[in-house]
C-alpha cells in the first residue's frame, strides 16, 4: 500500500511529536495542511490525552498520531537523587530556591490503563519512542486498526522494530532534535547521520522507512526520498510556527543561531539534542551522576522556572536539531507549503 494511503494523508510528511512545545493545536494545523499531525502524550495523564483528542477532532477532520514513550520505569533511587541535588546545590543558592522532593510531571511509559482510555477513539496512528510496548499491548493497539510507528537509531533497532510490530520505521539520524530514540546499548559515537541511516534501513526493511533529523528544506526532503525514504518526519522547523507553544527563551535561542546544538543527558537522564546552554556546558554534556531517566528532570524544574522568569534559558532543555536554518515564524500551513514546495 502507498505510504500516503496507509496514513490517509496527501503529502508524505509527519509533523514530529514534540513534548513540552506543542499540543493538539500544532497537530490540527499540520493535518489540515495535508501532512500527519502528531500529539505528544508522553507527559500527559489519560484524561489529558482524551482532551487532546477531543480538541483535535473539533479542529481537524483528518488523521492524527498519538505519541507515547515506552521506556522501563525504574524505582526511584534516593542515593542518586541526593547526589544530583548536591550537584545542583550552587544553582539553587544562586536563584534563592529551596530543594524539595516533589517529582512533578514525569515522563511515563505507555501502559494498559492508557490503552483502555484511548481505545474508544481507535486512534489512526500511534508512534512510540524508545522501542515498543510489550507484545500484548502492541496486539491490543493493532486490534483497533491503528498503524504503529517507532524510531530506530541503528540498523539493528530498525530490524527489531519491523519484526516486533512497527508498520513504519522512522530512521532517526544523529542530527535530530529531542531525545535519541535509542533502546539498545548503543554508543552515541557510532550513531549514523540521517542520510546514512535512511539508506541502510530502506535497503534492509520491507516496511516503509521515514527519514527524521536535520531536514529543513524542500531540497532535504527530496534528497531523503531519493535515498529511499517513503516520507519525512520534521520537528525543529515547526518550533517557531504560530501554532507551537514553544517558550520565549526557547524561541530566542532558536532564532539567535549563536550556540550550536549538542547531545546531552543532563536534562532527563537520556541522551537528547538541544541548543547548548550553561547547564549542559557546566556538567560536560554527558554526566554519569545524572539520575536514571526520567528522574533527572524533577530537581531541574524549579531552576528552569525561576530562570525562565528572568528571561534566561540556562536550565531549560532547548531541544532542537542541528539544522535551525529552516525555522520560520509563519503558520504551520505556510511551513508545510515551503517544505513540500507547493506553488
Ligand atoms: C523540541 C523537541 C521535542 C521532541 N519531543 C519528542 C517527543 O515527545 N516524542 C518523540 O517521539 N520525539 C520527540 N522529538 C524528536 C522528533 O520526533 C524527531 O525525531 C526530530 O524532531 C527530528 O529531527 P529535527 O528536529 O531535526 O527535525 C522531539 C524533538 C524536538 C525538536
From TrEMBL:
Cofactor(s) named in the record: FMN
UniProt keyword terms in alphabetical order: Detoxification, Flavoprotein, FMN, Monooxygenase, Oxidoreductase
InterPro entries: Aldolase_TIM (IPR013785), NMO (IPR004136)
Catalytic activity: 3 propionate 3-nitronate + 3 O2 + H2O = 3 3-oxopropanoate + 2 nitrate + nitrite + H2O2 + 3 H(+)
UniProt KW Oxidoreductase keyword: yes
Phylogenetic lineage: Bacteria, Pseudomonadati, Pseudomonadota, Gammaproteobacteria, Alteromonadales
GO molecular function: monooxygenase activity
Record-given protein name: Propionate 3-nitronate monooxygenase
Family statement drawn from the similarity comment of this UniProt entry: Belongs to the nitronate monooxygenase family. NMO class I subfamily.
Organism listed in the record: Pseudoalteromonas piscicida
Gene3D superfamilies according to UniProt: Aldolase class I
Pfam families xrefs: NMO
Signal peptide: none
Amino acid at each position: 500500500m502507498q505510504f500516503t494511503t496507509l496514513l490517509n494523508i496527501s503529502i508524505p510528511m509527519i509533523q514530529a511529536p514534540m513534548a513540552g512545545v506543542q499540543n493538539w493545536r500544532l497537530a490540527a494545523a499540520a493535518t489540515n495542511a495535508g501532512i500527519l499531525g502528531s500529539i505528544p502524550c508522553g507527559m500527559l495523564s489519560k484524561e489529558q490525552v482524551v482532551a487532546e483528542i477531543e480538541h483535535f477532532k473539533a479542529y481537524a477532520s483528518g488523521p492524527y498520531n498519538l505519541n507515547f514513550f515506552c521506556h522501563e520505569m525504574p524505582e526511584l533511587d534516593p542515593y542518586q537523587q541526593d547526589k544530583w541535588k548536591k550537584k545542583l546545590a550552587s544553582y539553587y543558592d544562586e536563584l534563592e530556591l529551596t530543594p524539595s522532593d516533589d517529582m512533578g510531571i514525569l515522563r511515563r511509559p505507555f501502559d494498559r490503563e492508557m490503552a483502555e482510555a484511548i481505545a474508544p477513539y481507535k486512534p489512526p496512528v500511534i508512534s512510540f519512542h524508545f522501542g515498543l510496548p510489550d507484545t500484548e499491548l502492541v496486539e491490543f493497539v493493532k486490534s483497533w486498526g491503528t498503524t504503529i510507528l517507532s524510531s530506530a537509531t541503528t540498523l539493528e533497532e530498525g530490524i527489531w522494530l519491523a519484526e516486533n510490530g512497527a508498520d513504519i520505521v522512522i530512521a532517526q539520524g544523529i542530527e535530530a532534535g529531542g531525545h535519541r530514540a535509542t533502546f539498545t546499548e548503543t554508543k552515541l559515537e557510532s550513531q549514523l547521520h540521517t542520510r546514512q541511516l535512511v539508506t541502510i534501513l530502506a535497503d534492509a526493511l520491507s516496511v516503509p522507512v521515514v527519514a527524521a533529523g536535520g531536514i529543513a528544506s524542500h531540497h532535504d526532503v527530496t534528497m531523503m526520498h531519493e535515498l529511499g525514504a517513503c516520507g519525512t518526519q520534521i520537528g525543529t522547523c515547526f518550533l517557531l510556527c504560530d501554532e507551537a507553544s514553544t517558550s520565549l527563551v526557547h524561541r530566542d535561542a532558536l532564532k539567535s543561531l549563536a550556540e550550536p546544538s549538542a547531545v546531552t543527558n543532563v536534562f532527563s537522564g537520556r541522551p537528547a539534542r538541544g541548543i547548548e546552554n550553561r547547564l549542559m556546558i557546566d556538567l560536560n554534556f554527558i554526566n554519569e551522576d545524572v539520575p536514571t531517566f526520567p528522574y533527572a528532570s524533577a530537581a531541574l524544574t524549579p531552576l528552569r522556572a525561576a530562570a525562565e522568569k528572568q528571561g534566561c534559558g540556562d536550565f531549560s532543555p532547548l531541544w532542537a536539531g542541528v539544522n535551525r536554518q529552516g525555522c520560520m515564524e509563519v503558520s504551520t500551513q505556510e511551513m508545510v507549503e515551503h517544505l513540500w514546495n507547493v506553488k
